Request: fold
Amino acid sequence: MDVQLSAKAQRRPAAHAVTRPALIQEGEATIVDYDIPPRDSAIEGTVFLPDGATEYVNVLVHLTTEYGDEEHFVATKDGPFRVDHLPAGIAELEVSDARTGDVLGSLSVMIEQARVVHQDIDLTE
Reply:
């Protein structure tokens, strides 16, 4: 599935996995339960140049999930990227030029549990 990126990109801080406060008092034992989702998903795809036919190289694909950030540098001549060990949920992909740091675009993608999501990134607009 090809998706065009929006020109406007904003980097958001990652949300914390703790959903309720924990009261910790000196001299007392405190037990805090965390829900840590399985990190058994992945996302892969190819970054394409504005001409739509060739792939883009020297880009940084920055992926933000609700549990933290993952990055993958695309350094090969044919432009593929892959990020493994991700939790399921909505993730934000941001693509930037590795040489200048300029943001080229961003998009949201749904990552399904225990699946490899294929998401090409089309920079034609």
Summary: The domain at 37-125 is CATH 2.60.40.1120 (Immunoglobulin-like). The beta strands are 2-4, 41-48, 59-65, 68-74, 80-86, 89-97, 103-111, 116-118, 120-122. Confidence is low (pLDDT under 50) at residues 1-18.
